[in-house]
Amino acid sequence: MTKRIGPAAWMTAKETMAVFDALEAKGGPDCARFVGGCVRDALLGRPVNDVDIATTLTPDQVIEALKAAGLKAIPTGVEHGTVTAVSGGKPFEITTLRRDVSTDGRRAVVAFTTDWMEDAERRDFTLNALYAKRDGEVFDSSGRGVDDARAGRIVFVGEPVRRILEDHLRILRFFRFYASFGRGEPDGEALAACAEHKAAIANLAAERISAELLKLLAADDPRRAVRLMAQTGVLGVALPEAAGLGRFEALVEIESEQLFETDAVLRLAALMPDDPQIAPALAERLRLSNEQRDRIAAAFGKEPPIKSWMSARETRRSVYALGQQTFRDRVKLAWASSTSTAAAAQWRGLIALGEGWSPPPFPLNGDEVVRAGVPRGPLVGQVLKEVEAWWIDHDFIDDKLAAIEKLKAVAQGMVY
Known about the structure:
Layout lengths: L8 H4 L1 H14 L4 E4 L1 H7 L8 E4 L3 H10 L3 E6 L4 E6 L2 E7 L1 E6 L4 E5 L3 H6 L8 E3 L5 E3 L4 H7 L8 H7 L2 H13 L6 H9 L9 H12 L5 H10 L1 H5 L7 H12 L6 H8 L6 H9 L3 H10 L12 H11 L1 H14 L6 H13 L9 H6 L6 H16 L6 H16 L1
Parallel strand pairs: 2-5
Antiparallel strand pairs: 1-2, 1-8, 3-4, 4-5, 6-7, 8-9
Helix pairs in contact: 2-4, 8-9, 8-10, 8-11, 10-14, 13-14, 13-18, 14-16, 15-16, 17-18, 18-19, 21-22
């Protein structure tokens, strides 16, 4: 029985059709097919965000075809056969069919081919080795990819060890796809191969490891996958800083029960020891962004202390001191570390108050301090700091005249 997808809006969109028309004008009918994630997600009824296309055309021919059709062509990875087409402002990744010439676990030398089966045989998992013509007819190269996708089975194409030796990142990809698509018990042969070759992960570029880890942690519920990583020793190689799964698993449960948005960076932090000094070393090793590094470090700060029973006034002081993002992160981590289930409503209330209250700007500035008689220099900052402390203590009083009177009193005391 022929399997089909669509017709879906992303398939019939004029931007998509323009790309296929351009390629087929150069290479004839069926020189291009949808491939991988977009086919898999369409079969599963999931949203399709990225549309990838495989083609028998070479990269040079792809570029010529796109330009002839008035479409933008970006040579994003021509040495590996990839050109990005921009049609109607939307990107489409187009990759020439390939076969591996040599691999070392980190990078591959490829040759282009016109054989769809050769291309399929070098892909990672059966649920990703799926192609579809523009009319929606699906080609299942392994003969089991559609069934595996629908059953939630993450199965390597061919021999797991061979696929892993071609690219060590496929170990992490196995757990990532299990987190997002897996159901039931994991494939035993695949799991054994990942465990056997886990040490090879250390040879991968840091950016590849961190990107894969964050994608894994962004899954709706990655707990089973992370447990498997820990049990096989894969987690210890990919993330040796990990201190345990308890807080991480509790955070995922909280996000699920409270309908919070999944947060891969905070989940990564939840796996770490409760030590802000860990963040710089982790960020350096995994090549995290400065923003991610600073966020993780701030989440582990100790002052001001976060308690579930904080009053509204104390909550506002903490939000002002920390900022909304850091306050929310600290509350969620404290909640996930708590052993009391009875305090859930209190924790949720803190987050709601923190998100619903915007800290007001401090009403005074340095010029006003100078006009109060304080000479320019370090004393200006000291006066401002003391008046700000008074303003915070008065729960961010919305009375500038009162703040000015306090400023005059502080300035008089410091100057005279």
